[in-house]
């Protein structure tokens, strides 16, 4: 069984490898969009279900509620992405 850190790392690697959401790509988000995305996934984990368009900083079709553990992994990966973004600025 993987640790929480390993699960979050796997999700962040997937964001980069599959979707090309690199630190350079993420550097375009200057208004805390990555943190709001993390918060949306945390809220989905806490309260269940999807989020409203006002709570998700991207096009709503990109929000994928896939259950408690997946939402936690995505939230952690978005936080990691924000930290990566800060490291290149």
What's the topology here?
Layout: H1 4-17, H2 23-26, H3 33-47, H4 68-88
Helix pairs in contact: 1-4, 3-4
What does this structure look like?
The chain has 89 residues and is an all-alpha fold. The chain has one domain (4-88). The chain has 4 helices and no strands. The model has no long low-confidence stretch (mean pLDDT 94).
Key structural traits:
89 residues, mainly alpha, 4 helices, 0% strand
* Number of distinct beta strands: 0
Average predicted confidence as pLDDT:
94
Q: Determine the number of helices (DSSP H or I, runs of at least 4 residues).
A: 4
**Can you tell me the overall shape?**
globular
- Tell me the quaternary state: single chain
End-to-end Cα distance, whole Å, is: 35 Å
The secondary structure category is mainly alpha
Fraction of residues in helix = 55-70%
- Hey, roughly how much beta strand do the residues contain? under 5%
> How would you spell out the order of helices and strands?
HHHH
* Major sheet characteristics: none
Task: Sum this structure up briefly.
The chain is mainly alpha-helical. The chain is built from four helices and no strands. It starts with a helix and ends with a helix.
């Amino acid at each position: 069984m993987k640790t929480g850190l390993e699960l979050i790392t796997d999700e962040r690697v997937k964001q980069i490898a599959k979707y090309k959401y690199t630190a350079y790509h993420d550097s375009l988000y200057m208004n805390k969009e990555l943190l709001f995305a993390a918060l949306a996934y945390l809220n989905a984990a806490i309260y269940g279900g999807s989020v409203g368009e006002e709570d998700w900083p991207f096009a709503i079709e990109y929000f994928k509620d896939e259950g408690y553990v997946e939402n936690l992994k995505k939230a952690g990966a978005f936080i990691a992405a924000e930290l990566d973004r800060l490291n290149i600025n």
